[in-house]
Design goal:
Elements (H helix, E strand, L loop, with lengths): L16 H32 L1 H10 L3 H28 L6 H26 L1
Length: about 120
């Protein structure tokens, strides 16, 4: 009997684009969940008074804060697009291999496009 080859090094595995989109969707969801307290804290401070709103607004002119904002909004956009893809798959669309690859590439394409547009507007 011939033994199956074993490759336990996960970095040597080649993931399909469908698997990559699915894994990134889960990671973006976890990171969004972890960032909710930070976002709510910033919202609470900015809504406390007009002076606090101006202070928070001035913080968004700092480059590091802009990068953090772009990162957070990128997570949100990616999670939205990948979630829409999963909803369509729940309705029976794009469940074959060809449709799954096309929809996964579409998610990555539109995510990249929207992040570039958003980055230009924020910067």
């Amino acid at each position: 009997m011939k033994q199956k080859p074993k490759n336990l090094n996960l970095f040597n595995l080649k993931l399909s684009v469908m698997a990559l989109v699915s894994i990134l969707h889960r990671i973006s969801g976890i990171l969004l969940f972890l960032l909710i307290p930070c976002v709510l804290f910033i919202l609470k401070i900015s809504l406390a008074s007009e002076v606090n709103f101006i202070i928070v607004k001035n913080y968004f002119s700092i480059i590091f804060v802009k990068i953090c904002l772009i990162f957070f909004l990128s997570l949100l956009i990616y999670h939205l697009f990948a979630g829409i893809r999963h909803i369509f798959m729940d309705f029976g669309m794009w469940e074959n291999k060809k449709g799954g690859i096309r929809s996964a590439k579409g998610v990555l394409y539109f995510f990249s496009l929207f992040v570039l547009i958003m980055g230009v507007f924020i910067w």
